[in-house]
Write a structure and sequence with these properties.
It is built from 12 helices and 14 strands. By secondary structure, the protein is of the alpha+beta class. Strand 3 and strand 4 form a beta hairpin.
Amino acid sequence: MKIYDMLIMCLRNLWRRKGRTLLTVIGVVIGSCAVIVMISLGLGMSQAMDNMMETWGDLTAVTIYNGGGGGMYYADGGMSTQSSDKDKPKLNDEALAMLSSIDHVSYIIPKMEVPAEMVTVVSGKNDRYKLTWANIVGVDLLILDKMKYTAEQGEMPTAKNKDSALVFGSEIAYQFMDTKKHGSAAFTYKQQLPDGSWSKPFIETVGGTIKIAINNSKKQNEDGSYQYGGKGYEYKFTGTTVLQQDPLWETPNSLLIDIEAAKKIISDYNRLNNVKNAGNPEYSQVKLSVDSINNVEAVHKAVEELGFNAVSMAKERNEMQGQLGVIQMVLGGLAAISLLVAAISITNTMIMSIYERTKEIGIMKVLGCFIGNIRIIFLMEAGLIGLLGGIIGTIISFIISAVMNSLGSSGLSDMFGIYTEGGGQVSIIPVWLVLLALVFSTVIGLISGFYPANRAVRISALEAIRNE
């Protein structure tokens, strides 16, 4: 018997008993719909968790902090940032070479901080604008886009101007003081207008030419500030960019310069102030970008094995994923109960069908139909019931998912512990879940029909023909 003939026979038999078939299909629809919706809720929770954690930090980053060595020294003792832990490796160029050899590391972003006490930052004619405080950070200015920073004003540095370029944080303008004015008036150059715009572009007002001068810690002014400058100890930079506010508040009060310039400033400070045993400047922080969130934990462990102090979101994410896994197991268990009921319903339907078609089975055997073909016919009927229920259940699941997503911000998300700020979805149904549901419902049908099909082929042909 050809497959086509068996398929037509299956469809005819299902249609002939359409009432019973419909009721059985409804059971599969409920089961498959429950599976899809429950898993989609779990996926929605997972995405909501990742979205929330992204506001805490980059999920694919491992951040290493300087835990040893002695790259920065001040001249007056007691102000040294040198760690007393001599066993910790230094965060220098040799360390970068070791870190870059770790598997799954896409690229490395080293940072070098220049302590505010080391320098004085001024701008404008006759040093009119003076920076009261700033976090000066040396980075590779050409990879600011990889660090997910965007420009609010100006343009990002290029290879041609990176050596002399200076990038302002979004709030650094508040730290500049007009030395020709007094009180609050000294900070009026960045007035916000009622429409939300700024009175003048910051780069045009203060950010043209910026001078970073090294402080002489042995010479102080009457106001207690250190004298600065001196031949060979002043550096001019051109303000090129004002960054937009980053979500992690890493850059608002920072001045970003080329990392080689930062190294030179620290070395020159040590030389000007006769700092002994200063050594080469070390990186204050190194961020490793990992190729996949699933590899963050492995990279984190590899970094710690090298002796560095590392921080990542891997541990927190794993703990939250563990809690989420328990919830998903509960949701999956509820869906499995529905499928179990559907499987029992399919088995019952097929057994009843065998009782009603005993004579038909006997005739097929007498006519020489292969036993395997008889088994396939009943298995095919059970599989079609499962497939049809899976298709209808998938369609209904998309409808339910759309309704839940539309209501997600009005209390439904709180019911399941899902927070959807920023347009997150409560329910997510990817393509693989649809395919999984269809395959699973079909397999459930085949498994449920296996016992009835074997029972059908064991029926004696003569007894089946005599059966009325």
